[in-house]
Amino acid sequence: MLRPGLTLATALMLMLMPFSGCLQGDKTSNEIEVEKSPSGVFVTGPDGQAVDENPLPLVFNLSDVGEDGAEPSIGVTSSGCIFFIAFEKVMRSCDHGDSWLDVTGPLCAFQTNDPYGWVDPVTDRIFNVQMQGLETSWICWSDDDGETWVGNPHDSGTTPLNDHIKLATGPWTGSGYGIGGIVSQAFYDQAVYYCYNKGVGIFCYTSFDGGATFEAGGLLVGLATSNGGLHGAITSAPDGTVYVTPRVETPTVIVSKDNGLTWFERTMGEDQGTPYPRKNSEVATDTQSNAYHIWTGADEGVYLATSTDSGDTWSQTSMRISPNQVISTAFPQIDAGDPGRIAITYLGSENGSELNQSNIDGAPWDGNAHYANANVSYYLYVTYSLNALDPNPTFHTVRATPDPVQIGSICLNSGDCRDIGGSNRNLLDFNDLHIDREGRVYIAFADGCTGSCASESNSTPEDSRSRRGILCYLGSGPSLLEGFGELSAFESE
To answer: pTM of the entire structure?
Structure first.
């Protein structure tokens, strides 16, 4: 069992060796000694290959939220309170993960078929969204750090929903629905977006009253209708541009610049594509509205494309942000701070010796997590870049969990899950990552390998069927907001 506030051994405090001119014999004063990175630490270029650069001094802490937490959402208010939302519960910690309290309000849904949570980074409003059957959803929200809640049991627009609910907020623009939004700011300063899939289509709605009702919007005709209905999270940039990512073979973003009235589509990464089964791709935007799109590529690595013009055009040659040694990945998530400063998390495996060995179906394994055999273990990885917009960016990756998150396969297709001592769909569909007002990274994930599974060396997939909710956050290291510099550990630690 993981302990609250556990500081990982992956903490790296490696520094540049001194310039050596008169101290190191024949070496010139321009030479720098680069130390070899320890196990689980990687510094790579945009091709996934190692580069001669010292790793960032990243320290990550782990906290057990005390509840099951598959498909978790994470957010942090300006007070520093952390909200971990999964299943029916809203768990809150106001002491950096040392303790957790269930603050789910009586006006929130009492059961769930699909959960999602969102913390508005501007207003601090906390949203708890629960799908109710296949017909509607129940949204509740709190404006006082979870002390009190307001709820609406029928909050999904005019069309009954099917699955994959997502909610986010963002600024109003001066066109489209934004014109009405500017008039309605007496109700709530931000636009609230709500998307879900029904059949093969994505439906997106805009709320003018802070999430109380969703009357404007509908099916994104001609876009996700033909490409597929499942999608990733909603992302809104400081300039009001909104992004939704459909789950399709060619990496794609769907973009609105008028608060959801109209949408257009952009593709990228044709050199990589995505594997099947496939899960969410995700978008983050920085403080200057540059956009970063990540996805799991055809070779099972995590890839990145960027846009510096609010989604109009995208880099077409994919950058691999996961190290080549990580030969299998799942559930990538991203957030951004200032331009070029991004953090990505994903589950990954370094068991390269299992490639081309028999997968769970007896075929040669190509790295797809859905078919991984019993000898494959998955850990949580975190990748940082402080120069992602440069022509030749650098990516710093650490293996952030000391023991596996999952042993064996991770079901990525609910129609093809396996009973291997229990269902391998224990982790469900996604994890989450967001930064706080200081640019500190917070990650929510479900741990499938706890207790004796984590402590014993001969654990099997049958032992890896947990779904414990775990918080991973940056204990110390560089902020994604440049003005905050190097973040130190919290005083209570």
So the answer is: 0.92
The Cα 454–Cα 135 span in angstroms is 39
Domain with residue 102: its CATH number is 2.120.10.10
What's residue 226's pLDDT? Answer: 60
- Alpha-carbon distance of 213 to 152, in angstroms, equals 8
Question: Do residues 418 and 409 touch, judged by C-beta distance below 8 A?
Answer: yes
Partnered with residue 333 across adjacent β-strands are 345
Domain total for the chain?
1
**pLDDT at residue 9, rounded to an integer:** 41
Find all residues with CB under 8 Å of 284, minimum gap 6, and list them: 235, 291, 292, 334, 335, 336, 342
Cβ distance 348 to 381 under 8 Å? Answer: yes
What is each CA distance from 348 to 243, 332, 400, 455, in whole angstroms? 26, 10, 11, 19
Residue 1 lies in a domain: no
Let me know if residue 50 belongs to a domain: yes
Domain containing 434 equals 6-487
Tell me whether residue 250 is in a domain: yes
User: What average pLDDT values come out for the chain (493 residues) when binned by 10 residues?
Assistant: 44 34 34 58 98 97 97 97 96 98 92 91 96 82 97 64 87 95 90 86 91 88 64 95 92 95 93 91 97 97 98 95 98 98 98 98 98 98 98 98 98 94 96 98 98 95 98 98 96 60
As a whole number of angstroms, the distance between CA 93 and CA 100 comes to 5
Contact assessment for residue 231 and residue 194, using Cβ atoms and an 8 Å cutoff: no
Q: Identify whether 492 is part of a domain.
A: no
CA 395 distance to own-chain centroid: 17
The residue written with tokens 């291997």 in the block is: 420
